[in-house]
Structures are given as C-alpha cells and as structure tokens.
C-alpha cells in the first residue's frame, strides 16, 4: 500500500506539469494579441501593453514564460490579476465557500441517494422502486440551471422562503438549496447505482452464506450486502468530490455564490488570464488527489483488493 | 452500525441548521440603514485614472468628486469642486477651486493634487487606462511614451493652492464639459507616497469614504460627513455586492435582498415584465450609448457611398426595437443621442429612414453588390438576435447574400478591428465619455483617430471638426459639430442603428436611487424610505 501510494504520488508530477503547461499554452500562447479588447472599444496604450508584457514575461519564449510562472507558483505566488489583486487572495477567499458547498452537496447526494437506492433495491419492483426510478429519471433529464432557476424562482421570489442569492460568507444552512441543486444530478446517479449494485449482490454467494448462517436480516443487509454494494458508489462519489471542489459555474452563478467556479468564469469573461491559470493549476492538484484517495478507499471497503 | 450513526448525525445537523436559518434573518439596525448595490469586480485597481469600465467607475464616482458634475437626468454639466473654469482664448484655461474641500484623510484638496494626478495619468510608464483623456493637454506627447522625455506636462501650471492653469495643444471650447470624467479626479498625497496602501484603501474627496473590501465579494463605503459638495449623501452606508449574473441581482431586487440593480436582464424586459415587478423602482432614461454597423472602407466593395446608403435604408430599425429590444432602445436618427449637448434630431434624414424601394434603386444605381455580405459581432455579448434580424432584412430588402458570422468573443472582434481585417459590416458600439456631440465624432471619424475602425477619412470632416473645436463660443462649436455630423452622415462610414436607454431598477426600500445618462451611479441621489 505504501509503495503504491508513493508510485501514484510520483505519477502526479508529470500529469501536473502536462496539464498546467497545456492550460498555460492555451490561454497565453494561442492568442495573437492578449490585450485585444482589454481596453474596450479603444486600443490599449503602448505603455499599458509594455507594463503588462513585463509583468507576465510575455517577451520570453513560451516555455521560458511557463517555467518562470511555474517557479513562482511552486513558491506559493500565483501572480496578480490585471487589477493588481493577488490571485492567491482570491483563491483563499473563494475556496472555503466552494468547500462548504461541496460538503453540503456531497452529504445531500450521499444520504438521499443511498437511502433511496437501498429502499428501491431491497423492495424491488414495487411502488417505492418505481417512484425512485421515475424521480431520478426526471432529475437526470433536467439540466442543472433549470433546477436552479426554478427553485430560486419558486422558493426565493414567489414563496420567499429562501434568499434568491447567498450572502458573501454563507453558513451551511444557507447553502442547502444551492447544494441540493448542485447535488441533484449526482444524487440520481447514486440512487440508481446503489439500487443496481444491491440487487446484483442479493444473489451473491456471500449473501446466501450469511443468510444460511442464520444472521439477522439487518446484519446481512447492513454489513454484507451494503458494504460490498457501495464500491461503485464510492468511486462515483470520489470523482464527484473532484468535480465539486472544482467549483460549480452554473450553480454558483444562479445563486451568486462567490466560489471558485465563479472566479474562473469571471476570469474567462474578463480575460484575466492569471486568475484562470492559477485556479486551474490548483484544481488539477485537487482532482488528482481526490482520485488517489478514492483508489485507496477501495482497499478499505473490499478486503479482496490489495495494492502492491 | 457506523453508517447508520453517521446518517443520523448528518440528519440531526441538517435539522439544526434549518431551524437556525428559520430563526435568523432578523436584520439589525446597521443592515437596515445600508443600501446594497449590484456590482462587479473592477477590472483594474481603484485609481481614478486607471478605470474606464462601469464597475470601477461606479465605486470611484462615490469615492471621488470631480471639478464638474453631470445632472442626474439631463447630464447637463455644472461646477462641483471647481469655483470657475474660464478662458479668454479657449486654449489656456484657468481653473479655480472652491475652498474647504478635503480628502478623507483630512488633507486639503489643492491645485497641486489635480496637477499631480493628471501628470500621473498621462505619464507613459504608469500605463493608466484613461491615459488618452489627457491627450489634448500641451506637453502630453513628451510624457506619454514609454520613455518620456519630460517629467511632467508643460501645459499644467499651479498658480496658487486654489488655482491652476491648463494649456491645451489647440483651442477646445467644450473642455470644461469633459472634466467630469473620473480620469480628471484629484489624487491625495497618500497615493504618491503609499501606492499599495492607497489601492487597498482608496482615499478620495467624494461623498463616501472607503470602509472595507473583500476582492470578488464586496466593497463597503460609509458616508463622508465632511463632504464639501452641494449634494450631500443621504444614506449612511453603501455596500457594493459582486454579482456574477444580472438575473440573480435582478431577482434579489425584486425579492428585497438588494436595493439597486444596474441593468435589467433580457428575460425581465420581455413584455415589460420588469415594470410590473419593480413598479416605481423601474427607471429608463436616454443615455449616451449608440449602436451602429461599421463599414470596412478599406474593402473596395464598400467604397461607393450609394451602396452604404442603400444598406442603411434597407433596415427597419423601429421593427427591431419593438420586437427584439422591448422598447428599451430607440432608432438612431444621427450619430449622437438626445442626452448629448448639441444633439439635433433627424440629422441622418432620409438615409436612416426605412425605405426598401429606394434602397433597391440606390443599390442598382451603384451597380449592385458582389459576393456574400458578412455581418460580424461578438457571440458573447448577446447580439445574435438583432444582428440576425438586420441580416434577414438586408437579404430580403436588397436581395444580397447576407450572412451573420459571429466571432466567439469581444477580444477577437477587437483583434480584427485593430488589424483592419473585416470583410463586411461589423458591430460598432460607442459609449460617450461626456455629454456632448463631440464625443461621438472626433474619436470615431477623424482621420486616423484612435477608434476609427472604418479607416474613414474625409478632409472636409477633419476641417469642420477643427473649426468647431476652435470656435469662440459653445454655441458656435455646437453648430460646427452639427455640420461635421451631417458631412459624416452623408458619407455614411457606419450605419447608425439604435441608441440604448439607461435602464436600472431600485427596490421598494428606496425612495430614490439613480444613474445619470452616462450610466454612472449618482450616490447622492440615494434615499431610503422612512421605516414603517
């Protein structure tokens, strides 16, 4: 297990270098003129261009620029936006909010999804099963922005139960509705995965053995069936953490949550390239680590899996 | 069973959280007195000379006061921090300041603060966004390059602490009108001694003082009780909140979580829904924003003026305004808008009237139009609907093979414009810098002007603009600019299409809260309804 972890950690390095270089090249290298449109309908002054060229090392060859940037990032300096704000400050302000939202969403999708899946899977072919299947189908069919806008309109504007936007430093409670919107799609997948996996395992040998041993049904379901059935679900939730930590552009936009997704979106809109590259570099790390944790979790859940 | 225990714990936590929100929500006194405004993260640091976009401008206009201010409804200029701005020859201007003005840190506002600020904006190495606003001042060319050959502009001279003198390169009669723009605000000593401190906590001379800011989230300002201007601020505190989506900000205003939204989302405009939802809080007024379609005059196919006039006449502006913009735009009848001084109705005359019959005749007389006609705008700006409508009208009314060919982003459009690479009509929007007809002419249509994307050049127009700039009185200048406008419209280097209204919304909590025709926030106009 230790060696496996080490090997995986070493693999992160080339992946990190490759992805950040690609992003860097895509935003800085592909554009003929990074300052076009930066100054509205007017052309930017030569002095403005010169100052920014200097700040972002744009005179160097791309690979040298990238290495300089990487060196700064590795020492914790993510650079400055065009307006002179430190990108690291922006990230530090936005990330706690994104993490909160991700936790809320993850709890909602895990709790509701697994419970719905278990109910549907155990009962089988009954009213509960059909209800879960139809409602999850409905959720999967709806794009997130529709769920978000409808909930905001109904709960916020029409009924006035929630605020239509989330305040700057939201509490967990204020993130429940946005978290639900963000989780809705994954929740449906979790429910379906749990259900299918559970139904499959009902006929597995180890379950038959457990029943034959005379174990109470709660123990058969809770310990033997559920634990094994959750492996695909955990995989799914794990990759979902990676995605959730990457921010949710649509949901954050709908509820005006000042998280990391909105930061990237604004960076792209305003061509604030330093923000985009900095945040994406960070997200690459988060995503890679989340995936590693999921892989290691397999071994915990299923004693048959060993890493050497 | 651990899993079950976890689920119970989570459910309990959620329940507690829900109860907590239900109990919370009661506003304290401070939040009841705070006016919240829809805002966006400024693209540049909050330095007056380094901002040319709306979000930075809104904050700066609250923090600073200029020599001149613009009327909230008519945009007519009047003296603010200046006692008088006078000139004998319209070239050497003497600006006398009103006594008693101070910056928020207590230091007095003197003539030196203005001169230093303007020199800073003009100096090349500072790379200020609004640098070109200083270009009319004598000595600008020496300081504006990357390696300046002079430390300061020779056209600026401090006479005494309350007076300074500005010498322009050439006479410019409407110079005082231009001075309300944020580029001309004074800068305190703190800016020059502690730049980082100033950027973190700007110090101005305006009606509100800086309190706190969280980048990408909010900016809070408090009332400046020492404010020396005539219009005193009425609300104790302003909170600018960053919104990613105009629709969210609008919904927040409708449901009472926000007090002012700087624009209205398209969904609320359809069928006039916003007027019902906002009631007395719905505002619309004529602004300084025009939309036109520019011709690439460097393409030989567009060189015949008859072709250009034909295309203009083939567009039914009123139909597009009614059907696509829900009445929030008006058909253009000239190059300027009605909020600009010197605006004369119907300058464009028959050339901007919808007349498909005559359009076809003109095109036939010009020998038709060869090849496909492309119309270009940026796809990220919400222009597809009306661009498509114009395209269809040109195709139907002129029988040309018109195609709408959007570019992905504004940045790509500007790239093509700067390189003069358009092969067909392109969207050309303009926002006036000050409420005068001149702002719609010089920078767009003078030979080699900074925003002359058409490569338009007519010596008669240049001469007319020169004459107007140097006219002895404002009335004479107005007449001169109007003459230049007619000359330009006869050549039609661009098709005037619409003028955009300034539309914004206030919550029911506000008695008033306005933007001026320059689409800038007038924070002194904000008043709360009495609590009841």
Molecular structure report:
The complex is a heterodimer of chains A (about 300) and B (about 525). Helix content of chain A is about 75%, strand content about 0%. Chain A starts with a helix and ends in a 7-residue tail after the last helix. Helix content of chain B is about 30%, strand content about 20%. Chain B is built from 19 helices and 19 strands. In chain B, strands 11, 12, 13, 14, 15, 16 and 17 form a 7-stranded mixed sheet that branches. A 4-stranded mixed sheet of chain B has the order 1-10-9-8. The termini of chain B are far apart. Classes of the chains: A mainly alpha (about 300), B alpha+beta (about 525).
Q: Largest interface here, residues on each chain?
A: A-B, 63 and 66 residues
CATH topology of chain A: MetI-like fold
Let me know the average pLDDT of chain B: 88
Q: What is the CA-atom radius of gyration of chain B, in angstroms?
A: 26 Å
Q: Name the shape of chain A in a single word.
A: flat
Q: Which structural class fits the helix and strand makeup of chain A?
A: mainly alpha
Separation, N- and C-terminal Cα atoms of chain A: 6 Å
Indicate the topology.
The complex is a heterodimer of chains A (308) and B (532).
Chain A: H1 2-29, H2 46-55, H3 62-74, H4 87-123, H5 127-141, H6 144-158, H7 176-202, H8 205-212, H9 217-245, H10 249-255, H11 260-269, H12 273-301
Chain B: H1 2-23, H2 29-33, E1 34-39, H3 54-63, E2 68-70, E3 77-79, E4 82-87, E5 92-97, H4 111-122, H5 140-143, E6 156-160, E7 163-167, H6 175-178, H7 189-193, H8 195-200, E8 208-214, E9 218-223, E10 237-242, H9 246-254, E11 260-261, H10 266-269, H11 273-278, E12 282-294, H12 305-313, H13 317-324, E13 329-331, H14 356-365, E14 373-376, H15 384-398, E15 402-404, H16 410-418, E16 425-431, H17 442-445, H18 459-469, H19 474-491, E17 494-506, E18 510-515, E19 521-528
Parallel strand pairs in B: 1-10, 14-15, 14-16
Antiparallel strand pairs in B: 2-3, 4-5, 5-7, 6-7, 8-9, 9-10, 11-17, 12-16, 12-17, 13-17, 18-19
Helix pairs in contact in B: 12-14, 18-19
